[in-house]
Each structure stands twice: as structure tokens, then as C-alpha cells.
Design goal:
54% of the residues lie in helices and 13% in strands.
């Protein structure tokens, strides 16, 4: 018995401890259900209203104070008082959130009981008759499942969901109640396939929606978001909760804004993230669609928060010279390099084979290892390594050259043209490779990065040069470095495309485009592109059109997006293996929920073969046996190539089958629907491993259920568990087994030496298989190594984005303040304070006259103090005095603008008497150099006696300058992220260099931003028209122009995600304009609920 087993016996497993904590709350829910289920239908709805009131009463005082602060911030009060109020408001928002959580914990048993009782009533009653509320009447105008009969509303128990008519037939099990409690607590509930995760989510969604702060239900694709909102929606609507799905509406539309205003909002992870970015590009508060990020439940949480989180969401636009790329130009050079290396590796392998056969293992092992470093995916090399003793020989040589920090490694690598590290997914060109591709070029340093530091030092030593000449020479060095850096990057990406990315494995070519294949699901990821020029490199390799480069305008990773929520939870069938990552990044605990019925699936040990050929033959033989038994078979593969190979082998045997991979993803629903039928053979990439439910007939269950055959262990244990989980749902019988060969990628990179040595000692034939629990455990340990490696990569990517995220939070907060206008004066005052300090620091030691001239040039203001004060005062006192003068000048400037402009606005108002309340006036504001349009609400300006004008100018100028500076900063950060990778050549950590340089860039950007805004406001004036010219009429508020913007996900390492669905379109209830309105009002539809249509 191991120490772990002893520990578990004494303290129990984590799952046992979790259940012990959850049991008391479950008992409270069951006790409450006994009472609540006795209520009438109307009493049940009244109970829900009562719970809502309890929450509102608990937060009413704080909410009222927040609203009061908001109104007070709109008035003309001192800036220091505004700052105090803003701080108080932020604290109250957090207090309200905590109060809500305390009340929800108290009412949880009753709320869960209400939802379970509602589900039971819909299951047992075709129609539920209740007293009609206004909400019922409004719903009846658009929804088929609600109709009005006088004072009563009739709720049907059948409706359309996902394009199919469904009749409600589910009631929550006890284990589902446990899952709901876990989700409400802000944890991850791991539930097996068929346990009804979608139904479980109704419990915490309903409970948290009662607070009215908004609940977001996040899915992996738009089919699920639309289907689930329609499937579960009526249960929420029955209790007066509004439900919508953002994927049903266009971005930036009024309909999408209304969807976010609902109590419960469904949507895909991508759209939630993109809407956040779009909101931070809005030019008016009316353009914002999202509200506070309060509570989110993420379905398939491991796919969204781990697989998808590695790839940032990006909104981009055209960039100057975006098509000026060098991939096609350098492609022939890289092809020559790749061909030369392949020929060299072939020669090395032949020589190694000859030497080893002659008994010279020392020299043969060196050549074998050199061939391995040159092209580890070379199939003849993989075949040779599966022979007895070869894997051990390679490991022995590698251990020798890896010692002492790889001191002897150049002896191996110097003979190669480039070196591939398959584990780290990297390729590095050697000096020999560089010489090969520059052989016919006039400049031998064409692909060599110059030593900028040394070159700069040499220029500095040239005393005969003037300061201006030195500057020109240094600019030339930096320009040369930039050109060569781009050149080297292009060649490296092309080299990676040729050596590490295989067609029909990592990507497919379809419709003249490179389309990425998701390694987790095998689906094509429409619209997804690799980052840093890698996608363009693959396009050049496959001779399809190389797309133009774009500039990033806004970006965020899903990791940082979802960390903004007050409370986050998730559900999936496979999260336990990634529990460490969930806790490390999101502070999310994983709780394994017991199944409603014991799992009857039998999971066999892995069968290990020497070669892929023998493995595939054994798989086909097993399929033939299972089909004869009348069992359906699901054969899981890791790539398109393998699925097509197995399909050809089955055709040769005359076995009917269906194939599901990235090339046939459109047939997924049809293939999965037949996958559980008697004798059906389905070959599928990991597409069938997630989000599918394969149902079995009684005949199939009697034959033994669905048989799962895995043809290779995936890098991640989660994916293997997903595949296994297709069998054995809800207590169904079934079996699973994985066929593995020593030639598989996982076994080559991370497979245990023990397995290879066992195979050699036993003298196994090719068609013999090893089977033992110990060996299966050894393979799982290999998977753990890969998972640890991938986690390290994801964490490092997150560290890069954390740098951006800290900057993003500062800028987006400034931008939101400028957009709302509530705190813009505080931000302007802080900008002035920063500028005053910077001006004083930069002018230290200047005489009074020079300082006065410097301030006049930078800010166009007088100092506000005399030479005597400047001589005796310290830096702090000078900065404070300068700040006072800046504030006074700003107020004076704004007062002058108001005095001159207000009469004109009043004149416009008199001439347009029928003007709507939201009418705006576009006025030009200039600093004498630039002119910006400012949108001004006429009614607010008149009501505030012109104070709104001053605020509108401050808001607009701040907003314009933030957007310009931030876009430029993002471009510089993109360039920095690419250039810091060269720090490895100087034995420096690129991440540390990135953090240091990005801080400097951001500090400079903030300084420039503050200076731009402050100097503009201190010079601002409105160029008034000649009195004889006609007065400008009010205009409608403008919307942000998104026509040139693209939304995309740039894949950094590996990929996950879902294509857009092709589900049937469900049209809402249609009523003729002259027909009676369904709400029962007695009016025509066009005069009632159809008034705005």
C-alpha cells in the first residue's frame, strides 16, 4: 500500500471531503422542496417575487446612496469632493456584491426548490394556468408557448429549441442539486457524460438572476448558446425573469444591448469577449452594450478557460504597407534549406545504421542523435528507433550531450543546417544553414542580426563626428537592425512552417485558404489564424494567397476577460486533470460530482505495439469482432490523416462505416445521430469527444453497449477521458480501450524508457501487444509531462498578457471615465498634476526665464508666480503652484467658451422647438493646430447653464487622444513582443526584457497622452461662424464605424474552439399588424406590442 493510499484511508479523498461539506445544504434544499412543492402554481410564482424583494430590501440603502453619488458627481462641486465621492461609490459597489452573496446563501434552499418544482410541473402538466402578469402578456406577443386567456396566462410544456420541437421531461436528481450548489459557490462542477449539465445550470442561474445584476451563461459555440437559451428559457420566464442570447443579434445593435440588459444572457465566449473590446472602442455611453461583469457560468469550462484561453481575442484593422511582406520572396531559400537538411538526415541515418550493425555503437549513436536533432519527425528514423535497443542508445547519447548545460552539444548541432526541438516546438537555424542561404548573396551578413549595443558604442567613440552626425549614424544602425530583424523572423517562421506544421494534421487547405484544425476536437476553426506571421508562412508554403498584415486595435485573452467577473464558475466532464491550472490562474476549485447511476463501462488497459502498422491492423481486427457481436463502435483518432487511413483499411475489408473529421464537419449531427445504432462503425477525430450524446437502443445495450477504440493516446488526458465518456452514459454498458505504438508522438517524446526496455527484453514480434496496468499508468505519466509542459507555455503566455492587461485596465478605466463624464474632471486634474511634476523634474536647474519659456512652449500658459518665489521654493512647491495656475487657466478657458457659445445654442433651440431630448450638436473645438468635433447634448447644456459644454469638451478630447495613443502603443507592443525574442541570443529572458521595455513604453505613452490632453484643453477655443452664416441644425448621435474592423482569434500555441453552427433558424411568433394583440389588451397588434415593428 502506497503512502497516498494510507493518506486517503485516514483523511478520505478530496471528493469525500467535498461531499461531506455539501450534504447539509442538500438536505436543506430537499426539506424546502417538501414544502414548496405543495404550493399552487400562482403561490410558487409569488414565492419567487418574495425572494426578489428580500434581495432588493437588503441592498436598497446602498443602491440609493450609489445613485445619489452619481447625481452629485454630475453637479458643479470641488474636484477633491468628487474624488471622495468616486472612492465611496467604488466601495459601496463591492459592499452591495457581498450583501447579495450573503442573502443568496440564505435563500438558496428555497430558490433551488422552486426551480425543481417548476421542472416537475412542466413535466407533468401539458398546460399550466396562472394569473397573467404584464410580463406574461408581453411574452405572448413573441413566444408560442405562452398564450393569454382573459386574466390568465397559459404556459405550454412544449416549445422549439435548436430548431426542434421538444416536450419538457426532466426533473433535477439529488446529484444535480449538489452540482448546482457547487456552481453557485463559484467552483467547477465535474459531471460525467449524460448527467445533465445544462439542467444543473438552471439552479444557480435562477438563484443569481433574482438579484437583477445579470447572469451570463457561456458556451463554446453559437448552436449551444441559441439552443440552451430556447431550451431552458421558459423555466426562467415562468418566474418573470427575462432571457436572451447575444448570438441571435448583430454586434453593436440595440437588440444586443437589450440582450445584455436581460436577467439571464446566453452567448459564446468569443462574443462576450469581443463585445467587451467593442465597448472599449465606443464613442458614446449609448453605444455600450455590456453592463457590470457580475456572474458567469462557463459550459465546457476546460475548453473555454484552458484551450481557448491560450489565444487572444483581437479586433484589428488595415495597416499601411500591410501587403509588403517577404514570405514568398524567401520561400525558395527555405525550401532549399529544408531539402538540404532532409538529404543530410537521410545520409546520417544510413551511416548510423551501418555503424551500429557493425558493432560501433559509439560513433553510430552520435550520428543517430544528430539525425534526431535534425529531423525528429522523419518516418524512417521513427521506424529505426522502434527496433530493439535503439531508443535506449539514443537516450544514452542524449544524456551525455545534455549534461553540463549542453557544453558538448555544438559537436552535434554544428553539422546541421537547423536544429528542431520537438518538445519545445521550436526550430533554430545554425551558422551552416545561414551560410547556405546567403551563399549566392552579396552581403554575407544578410540574415545576421547586428550587435546594436557594440555598434552604438563604436559611434560614440568617433570623436570627429558632430552630435547630429552621430544621431544620423545611430538611426542607420537601428534601421538596419529593424530590417534584418524582420528578415530573420520571416525566415524562422517559414522554417517552422516547413518542419513543424503538417498538412491534414495541424491544418487543411480548403477554398484556397489555410484552415487550422483544432487539436482537441478535430474541427476546422473558421476565421482563426496563427500569430506572428506563422499563418502567412504556411500560406506561402502551400502556395495560396498570403493575406495582408493587420494592426491590432484592441485585444484581450479569455483568461483576463473572465477574471473580471465578480463570481465565476464552470461545468464540464473533464476538469480534474487540470485542477492545478484552474486554481493557479482563476482560483477555481474543481469538485467531482457523483453520478446518478454507477458507471457500467469497462475501461481496458492500453494495448502497446511496436509499430503503427501493427497497431492499425489490430484495431481493424477488433472492429471486425465487435461488429459481429452487433455492437456500435466509435474509433477515435488524433488527426485527419489517421482517420482517412483507417477508412481505407475498412473499405478493403468491406466494412460499412462513416467518417467524421475536419473535412466532413458539416455532417457531424447526422453522423453522431447514427453512431449508437447496431453494428455502426464511426471513425472520428476528437470531434465526437465533446458536446455529443450518443444514445443506445435496448438491443445495443444487451449486446454490450458502445465500444470505444482509441487509436492513439492524446497529449492531454482530458481528451482521452472525453472520448471514453461517449460510452457508459447514465449507467449504460460499454467498453473502452486505447491502442498505442512506440512510434506514436507521445511515446517518442515523453514515453517511458522502461516500456522500450521491456519490449526489447521480451523480444516482441510486431503483431504482439503488451498489456498491463503498470504500462497504462506509465503512459498517463507521460501525458502528465506534456500537460505540465503545456501549462508552462500557457502560464508564460498569460504572463505576457498580464503585462498588457495591467496597462489595458489603466487605459480602459480612463476611457470609461471619459465616456461617462462622471469622473472626467478628476482624471483631467490628475493629468495636470502629473504634467506639473514632470515639467518641474525635466527643468531642474533652469533659470527662471528659460523655465517660463519652456512652460509657455509646452502648455501655452504663464507660470503664475514671480522669480523670487521660483528662487526660494522647492520642486514640490513649484509643481503645486504650477498646478494651481493650470487649473485656474483651464476654468477661465472653459468659462470663456461657455459665455461665447451658450447664446448660439439657445438660438438653435428656439429655432428648432420640436427638438427631441436626446438631440445633439456637433461643434468644432480647436487648439490652433488640430480641430476635433465634439458631440454636445443640447438639453443638458441648457439645463446646466453651460457646464455640460465644458465637460463634453474634456470628455471628447480625452477620448480622442486616448484612442490615438493606445492604437500607436499597441502597434509598438506588437513590435516589442516580436523583437524581444532575440534576447535569447544574448542569454537574457525575453519576458523580463519585455516587462522592462513595455513599462518604459507605457510610461512614455501616458506622459505623451497627459501632455496632449492638458495642452489642448489649456489652448481650447471654439471657432465661431460669421453671424451671416446659417446656424447649424441638431444632428443624431454618431455610432462607431466598425466597417473596417475584423474580429479574429490569433492562435499562439495550439488551438481550440468551434465553428459557427448551421442550426435551423427559429423564427419568433408572427402576428399580423391588424390582428388582435396576443397579450389580451383588445387592441390591434400594430397599436400594442407591434407599435415599434
Amino acid at each position: 500500500m502506497s503512502f497516498t493510499d494510507v493518506f486517503k484511508k485516514i483523511f478520505g479523498t478530496k471528493a469525500d471531503r467535498d461531499m461531506k461539506q455539501l450534504r447539509p445544504m442538500l438536505n436543506k434544499v430537499l426539506e424546502a422542496y417538501g414544502n414548496i412543492d405543495k404550493l399552487s402554481d400562482d403561490q410558487l410564482r409569488e414565492k419567487c417575487t418574495e425572494l426578489k424583494k428580500r434581495i432588493q430590501d437588503a441592498i436598497a440603502a446602498d443602491e440609493s446612496r450609489i445613485a445619489g453619488i452619481k447625481e452629485e458627481l454630475e453637479t458643479d462641486i470641488p474636484l477633491n469632493r468628487k474624488e471622495e465621492l468616486a472612492t465611496e461609490s467604488d466601495k459601496l459597489v463591492k459592499k452591495v456584491d457581498q450583501t447579495i452573496e450573503d442573502v443568496l446563501e440564505e435563500i438558496l434552499p428555497e430558490a433551488f426548490a422552486i426551480m425543481k418544482s417548476t421542472a416537475r410541473r412542466f413535466k407533468e402538466n401539458p398546460v399550466i394556468r396562472v394569473k397573467a402578469t404584464q410580463f406574461d402578456r408581453d411574452l405572448s406577443a413573441t413566444k408560442d408557448f405562452v398564450s393569454i386567456d382573459g386574466d390568465y396566462a397559459l404556459w405550454n410544456n412544449h416549445w422549439v429549441a435548436g430548431g426542434n420541437e421538444i416536450t419538457w421531461d426532466m426533473v433535477h436528481y439529488d446529484v444535480q442539486l449538489i452540482g448546482g450548489i457547487v456552481l453557485h459557490q463559484g467552483k467547477i462542477a465535474e459531471m460525467a457524460t449524460g448527467e445533465g449539465k445544462t439542467l444543473v445550470a438552471t439552479l444557480p442561474v435562477f438563484l443569481n438572476a433574482l438579484a437583477g445584476k445579470g447572469v451570463h451563461v457561456v458556451t463554446v459555440n453559437d448552436y449551444l448558446s441559441k439552443r440552451d437559451s430556447e431550451w431552458m428559457g421558459p423555466l426562467y420566464m415562468f418566474h418573470g425573469l427575462s432571457v436572451d442570447c447575444i448570438d441571435k443579434h448583430e454586434p453593436n445593435s440595440e437588440a444586443r444591448k437589450k440582450a445584455y440588459a436581460c436577467n439571464i444572457t446566453f452567448g459564446t465566449n468569443n462574443e462576450f469577449g469581443f463585445d467587451y473590446l467593442r465597448d472599449n472602442m465606443a464613442v458614446s455611453m449609448d453605444d455600450l452594450v455590456q453592463r457590470k461583469h457580475h456572474f458567469a457560468i462557463v459550459d465546457e469550462v476546460d475548453s473555454v478557460l484552458i484551450d481557448d484561453a491560450r489565444t487572444p481575442l483581437i479586433i484589428s484593422g488595415p495597416v499601411p504597407k500591410g501587403e509588403d511582406q517577404q514570405f514568398v520572396e524567401f520561400k525558395p531559400l527555405v525550401e532549399r534549406l529544408y531539402s538540404s537538411q532532409k538529404a543530410l538526415v537521410t545520409s546520417l541515418l544510413n551511416d548510423a545504421r551501418k555503424l551500429i550493425s557493425e558493432g560501433n555503437e559509439k560513433d553510430g549513436g552520435v550520428l543517430l542523435y544528430r539525425a534526431y536533432k535534425g529531423y525528429p519527425k522523419y518516418k524512417p528514423l521513427i521506424k529505426f528507433l522502434s527496433e530493439p535497443g535503439m531508443k535506449q542508445l539514443l537516450q544514452k547519447v542524449e544524456n551525455y550531450y545534455m549534461q553540463d548545460n549542453e557544453r558538448e552539444m555544438p559537436f552535434i548541432t554544428d553539422e546541421l543546417y537547423f536544429v528542431i526541438n520537438e518538445k519545445q516546438h521550436s526550430v533554430d537555424m545554425t551558422d551552416k544553414g545561414r551560410d547556405l542561404i546567403t551563399g549566392n548573396l552579396s552581403d554575407p551578413n544578410f540574415f545576421v542580426l547586428p550587435d546594436v549595443g557594440a555598434a552604438m558604442a563604436e559611434v560614440q567613440k568617433e570623436l570627429e563626428l558632430t552630435a547630429e552626425e552621430k544621431k544620423v549614424k545611430k538611426d542607420g544602425i537601428l534601421s538596419d537592425f529593424a530590417v534584418k530583424s524582420e528578415r530573420v523572423h520571416t525566415v524562422n517562421q517559414l522554417l517552422k512552417a516547413y518542419t513543424m506544421f503538417d498538412k491534414d494534421v495541424e491544418y487543411v487547405v480548403a477554398d484556397g485558404k489555410i484552415k487550422i484544425v483544432d487539436e482537441q476536437t478535430g474541427r476546422i476553426l473558421e476565421g482563426r489564424r496563427y500569430s506572428d506571421g506563422l499563418h502567412q508562412a504556411i500560406e506561402a508554403k502551400e502556395s495560396v494567397k498570403v493575406e495582408a498584415a493587420t494592426q491590432t486595435f484592441a485585444t484581450i485573452t479569455l483568461q483576463n476577460y473572465f477574471r473580471m467577473y465578480h463570481k465565476l464558475s464552470g461545468m464540464t466532464g473533464t476538469a480534474e486533470t487540470e485542477a492545478g491550472e484552474f486554481w493557479s490562474i482563476y482560483k477555481l476549485d474543481v469538485v467531482v460530482i457523483p453520478t446518478n447511476r454507477p458507471i457500467a463501462r469497462f475501461d481496458n488497459n492500453d494495448l502497446i505495439y511496436k509499430t503503427k502498422k501493427a497497431k492499425y491492423e489490430a484495431v481493424i481486427q477488433k472492429v471486425v469482432e465487435l461488429v459481429k457481436e452487433g455492437r456500435p463502435v466509435l474509433v477515435g483518432t488524433t488527426d485527419v490523416e489517421t482517420s482517412e487511413l483507417l477508412s481505407r483499411m475498412l473499405r478493403l475489408r468491406g466494412i460499412p462505416h462513416q467518417v467524421l473529421n475536419a473535412k466532413q464537419h458539416a455532417r457531424e449531427a447526422d453522423v453522431v445521430a447514427h453512431a449508437g445504432q447496431k453494428g455502426t462503425v464511426t471513425i472520428a477525430t476528437n470531434m465526437a469527444g465533446r458536446g455529443t450524446d450518443i444514445k443506445l437502443s435496448d438491443e445495443v445495450k444487451a449486446a454490450g453497449g458502445l465500444a470505444i477504440i482509441g487509436t492513439e493516446r492524446h497529449d492531454s488526458r482530458r481528451v482521452d477521458r472525453q472520448l471514453r465518456g461517449r460510452s457508459g452514459r447514465q449507467g449504460d454498458p460499454g467498453s473502452s480501450v486505447f491502442y498505442v505504438s512506440l512510434e506514436d508522438k507521445l511515446m517518442r517524446l515523453f514515453g517511458s524508457e522502461k516500456i522500450a526496455s521491456v519490449v526489447d527484453r521480451m523480444g516482441m514480434e510486431e503483431d504482439e501487444a503488451l498489456e498491463a496496468k503498470m504500462l497504462s499508468n506509465s503512459i498517463e505519466r507521460a501525458q502528465k509531462k506534456v500537460e505540465e509542459n503545456n501549462f508552462g507555455i500557457r502560464k508564460r503566455l498569460l504572463e505576457y498578457d498580464d503585462v498588457m492587461n495591467s496597462q489595458r485596465e489603466v487605459i480602459y478605466t480612463k476611457r470609461r471615465n471619459a465616456l461617462s463624464g462622471e469622473r472626467v474632471e478628476i482624471d483631467v486634474m490628475n493629468m495636470m498634476q502629473d504634467i506639473a511634476q514632470i515639467v518641474v523634474e525635466k527643468s531642474e536647474g533652469m533659470p527662471y526665464d528659460e523655465f517660463a519659456e519652456y512652460v509657455m512652449g509646452a502648455l501655452s500658459i504663464d507660470l503664475g508666480f514671480d522669480e523670487a518665489f521660483y528662487a526660494k521654493a522647492g520642486d514640490k512647491a513649484v509643481a503645486e503652484k504650477l498646478l494651481e495656475n493650470m487649473l485656474e487657466t483651464y476654468r477661465r478657458r472653459m468659462d470663456t467658451i461657455v459665455q461665447r457659445t451658450l447664446p448660439v445654442i439657445k438660438d438653435i433651440c428656439e429655432k428648432n422647438a420640436a427638438m427631441p431630448d436626446d438631440a445633439v450638436l456637433r461643434i468644432p473645438v480647436s487648439d490652433g493646430r488640430k480641430v476635433y468635433p465634439v458631440m454636445l447634448n443640447i438639453k443638458k447644456t441648457l439645463d446646466s447653464e453651460g457646464r455640460e459644454l465644458a465637460r463634453a469638451i474634456s470628455k471628447s478630447i480625452t477620448l480622442y487622444r486616448i484612442d490615438d495613443c493606445w492604437k500607436e502603443h499597441l502597434r509598438e507592443m506588437d513590435d516589442l513582443k516580436q523583437s524581444v525574442q532575440n534576447a535569447t541570443y544574448e542569454q537574457k529572458d525575453p519576458l523580463l526584457v519585455y516587462k522592462f521595455e513595455s513599462f518604459n513604453l507605457f510610461s512614455q505613452m501616458l506622459e505623451d497622452l497627459n501632455k496632449d490632453v492638458v495642452s489642448f484643453l489649456l489652448r481650447a477655443f471654439i471657432p465661431l461662424r460669421d453671424a451671416s452664416q446659417p446656424t447649424q441644425a441638431p444632428v443624431q448621435p454618431r455610432k462607431p464605424d466598425m466597417s473596417q474592423m475584423n474580429t479574429s482569434r490569433s492562435d499562439m500555441v495550439t488551438n481550440s474552439g468551434e465553428p459557427r453552427s448551421k442550426m435551423p433558424v427559429h423564427v419568433d411568433k408572427q402576428v399580423g399588424r391588424n390582428d388582435p394583440c396576443p397579450c389580451g389588451s383588445g387592441k390591434k397588434f400594430k397599436n400594442c406590442h407591434g407599435k415599434n415593428q
